[in-house]
Write a structure and sequence with these properties.
five-stranded antiparallel sheet, 57% helix, 8 helices, 226 residues, 5 strands, 3 domains, alpha+beta
Length: 226
Amino acid sequence: MDQKQPRKHSAPRYLITGILTVIPLGLTWAVFYFLFTQLSRFGTPLVRGLAETLQQSSPSLSEWILTLDPLFQSIIAVILTLFALYLLGWAATNIVGKSIISAFDTLISRVPFVQTIYGSTKKLMSALQQQPGDIHRVVLIEFPSPQMKTVGFVTRTLMDEGTGQKLAAVYIPTTPNPTSGYLEIVPLDQLVPTDWTMDEAMTFIISGGVVAPGDNLNYTLGVNNG
């Protein structure tokens, strides 16, 4: 009887273990599929443009590209998109590329609704890449309740004209998608500074806390409990 007892409970335990094993695989596949689909969608016009360009010099190659299986066309589209992003990043680092991007920003700024989204997003990305003065970029704040803390990024500091209190605008990204989140206005003295870099904090958020710079929270964050 004693030997059969563990077997009685082994099926639910194995089922739960199997589910916990599949979850990270499923999440990884979902993220990969999303990125692959988006890159493929952006790169599809590039594939068609490449085929049209080769139509005069190499008609057979052009026809071969257009008659490929959709999966292989998607792979080529992803490769072309990544190559285009690489060229864009390279161009953005030299003088000519900066001038072109500046001219594009000026053009976008004349379109009211588009400028609001584009300009705000670009300012956020720029702010997260710069150190916000004399305070730490990655902090902890009490959210969503005083008994809980979450990782946030300080985007700028403010001043309450009525009380003279210093405040901080803190962006709270969500897990596992850090591109959506919350904006909180927090008193500066309630921020818990950390010694994490942006990359370390983003890895911590995307992984759901599984991957962190260290195991000792107090030591890693530099929190003094007295």
